[in-house]
Amino acid sequence: MGLEDKLKQVGKGISETTWKVLEYGVDLYNQSYDRFPKTTKFLSAATGTIGGDYIAKRVMQGEDINLRDVAFTTFAAAYQSWLYPKFIDYTEKISENESVKKTYKKLGISKEWAKTLIIGGLFFIPNMVYWGLLSVKNQADLTLKSATQATKAIGIGSIPYLGVDYVVTNKLKKRYCLPVWSVAEIAYNSFLAGVAYLTKNT
Q1: d(C-alpha 63, C-alpha 193), whole Å
Q2: Do residues 101 and 95 lie in contact, with contact meaning Cβ atoms separated by under 8 Å?
Q3: In 3D, which of 188, 186, 191 has the Cα closest to residue 52?
Q4: N or C: which end of the chain has fewer CB within 10 A?
Q5: Is the pLDDT of residue 51 over 90?
């Protein structure tokens, strides 16, 4: 067997293992969701809020995570687990509105992408609330200047999430939205942490 064949065999084995692990994880999630939907939604959201804050604070800033940090991000996870899934329903209703339909059709935008942009807009206010919550947690000053900077940062930061929002609003069942968004949040914060680390060490 040549090297190329061995590499293909290894790649195939890794792919099959990955899918088996993924299927097992989804099955466990479904069982948990069916039995304890509220708890499962909360834990799914908490993974993103606590994990994202850990990466942002510990990895990017080199600071320790304390109980105050966990308390704030846990509170954020509680309201996110209740509110965020509702955005999918709101998005569908808004996209079916006749005036909205005419607008995105006139602009040549498909319903799928219109829903993606709508849900991105719906996220703006709770994201600003979350920014304010994190600012209080980190004892940062809440000023008009900092709010303006946060608005710009949230606007720019929402761009990488467009693909994730497209999948969540058009391709997945609503029950999977929170874990997918949490994974995206951790992945995005990890990317920023990596960029910050490389920038710092170059």
Answers
A1: 13
A2: yes
A3: 186
A4: C
A5: no
Q: Which of 38, 188, 171 is nearest to 116 (CA)?
A: 171
Return the biggest CA–CA distance within the chain. Answer: 66
Query: CB under 8 Å to 110, separation ≥6 — which residues?
Result: 104
DSSP helix, strand, coil percent of the chain (3-state; round to 5): 85, 0, 15
CA–CA separation, 110 vs 126, rounded Å?
A: 26
pLDDT in tens, 93-131: 999 999 999 999 999 999 999 999 999 889 888 878 877
Both tokens assigned to 157: 């930061």
**Token pair belonging to 134:** 């994190």
Which stretches within 36-123 are classed as H helix? 37-54, 60-61, 67-96, 98-106, 111-122
Task: Report in angstroms the alpha-carbon separations of 85 from 103, 128, 184, 187.
Answer: 25, 18, 15, 20
